[in-house]
Amino acid sequence: AIADTGWAHAVQFFSSAGELLQHLAHLANDGLPSLLLLDYYMPRINGGELLCLLKNSDTLRHLPVLFYSTLLTPALEQKLLHDGALQCFTKVQHY
């Protein structure tokens, strides 16, 4: 989906929340990303838990967060929005 936007050159991918948090910890405030796109279903720390960690951080709480994930129920989507996500999108399965 990212490749289809034409912005793949400006996107960094991380395989886990821990890897992302480690990367963010080494950036200066003016070098932080302008947007985080999270999947809810990540290993160890899920996207909702990561969202809470980000929003509880003085240096990271301002980062805008979008979710792009499979199987987001209306209740889960409402919780993510309540916890600080800007928007949630459900992945469309192509067969």
Task: Walk me through this protein's architecture.
The protein is built from four helices and three strands. It is of the alpha/beta class and 95 residues long. It has a three-stranded parallel sheet, covered by helices on one side. Strand 2, helix 4 and strand 3 form a beta-alpha-beta unit. The mean pLDDT is 90.
Radius of gyration: 13 Å
Order of helices and strands: HHEHEHE
Question: What sort of overall outline do the alpha carbons produce when their principal axes are compared?
Answer: globular
Kindly estimate the percentage of residues that lie in beta strands according to DSSP. 5-15%
Query: Portion of residues in helices?
Result: 25-40%
Helix count equals 4
Q: Return the average pLDDT rounded to an integer.
A: 90
Sketch the major β-sheet.
3 strands, parallel
Quantity of strands, as a count: 3
Low-confidence stretches: none
The largest beta-sheet arranges its strands as 1-2-3
C-alpha termini separation:
15 Å
Q: What structural class do helix, strand and pairing data support?
A: alpha/beta
Characterize this entry briefly:
The chain is α/β, with parallel strands linked by helices and 95 residues long.
How do the helices and strands line up, and which of them pair or pack?
Layout: H1 2-5, H2 17-25, E1 36-38, H3 47-55, E2 65-69, H4 74-82, E3 87-90
Parallel strand pairs: 1-2, 2-3
Identify the notable features of this structure and list them briefly.
95 residues; alpha/beta; three-stranded parallel sheet; 4 helices; globular
